[in-house]
Amino acid sequence: MMDSVKSQLIRIGPYVRVAMGLVFVVAGAAKSWDPVLFYWEAVSYYELLGFAFENWARFAKPTLVLGPIEFSVGVALIVNWRPAITLPSGLGLMLLFVGITGYAWQQEADINCGCFGALVDRTPGEALLEDLVMVGALLLAWKWGTQRSSRGMARWVGLAGILALVLTGARFYPESARVENSDLANGVRLTGVGLTGSDIDLTDGDYLILLFSPKCGHCKKAVPSVNRWADQADLPPVIGLHSFGQDSEALRLFEASMRPRFEIATISNSDWKRLTWRHGFPRMAFVRDGVVQNVWERNEMPTVQQLRQITTASGG
Asked: Which of 81, 228, 240, 257 could bond 264 through an S-S bridge, CB–CB 3.0 to 4.6 Å?
């Protein structure tokens, strides 16, 4: 019986190793392709860990190298290069992720896990469960999936890491203004913004989005104007976005007292931070097919006539 189990593990071990390599490659590529999004997700974890806000950027920017590291480890696992090094490295990364996501889950933090960038939106609790499964898979691969180690692959593994690092820099630094002055700016494509409590897809169609807090006095004063916008059949749908839980007392009191006539949805703390950084709220934006067209701050909210003119431009 034990011999049969052992033979089965030996047979599937290499497939598990390759599968975990693909997971690392996809995760690393997603972080490298959209490093700004990963930057804001890293910031949320640094905040959760108690880092002062003036130190967020100092630590979040170096964290961007995690994408290229994951990518190169993934390539090494796939080609079975130096498994005595790459498998412990992969396991170390997974244990780091387990620790961070486990702490976020224990603190009931409403932040994106950040594991796969904009590809998958998952809570820390969901990510923790998946990470534990992948730790088990790496242990299996370490024991049974490295019978034959590849040689002569060092240049390809190194090249993979260098290409991912170059991609991260090329994608991040031209967009560095987005981490200095929020991710809600004209011309920015809103990727990875997951909505809870709504079926709206911000990447498809025209929308007026309102960033607000149920506890914010300025936000409450803006509701009558936003209700008027929502009542206009010729204007895009209005959706209010906040970072409070769907069942929070603050949101319940807000809806009971203000009677908003527009749809409301929850976004993660990571998304809230990157859309309001260095700005007050409420903030409003006109979004067309996921791309921000116009942004208004709380002291310059548009009139219905202005919205009508802007949203009907360019074939809207």
From this structure: 240
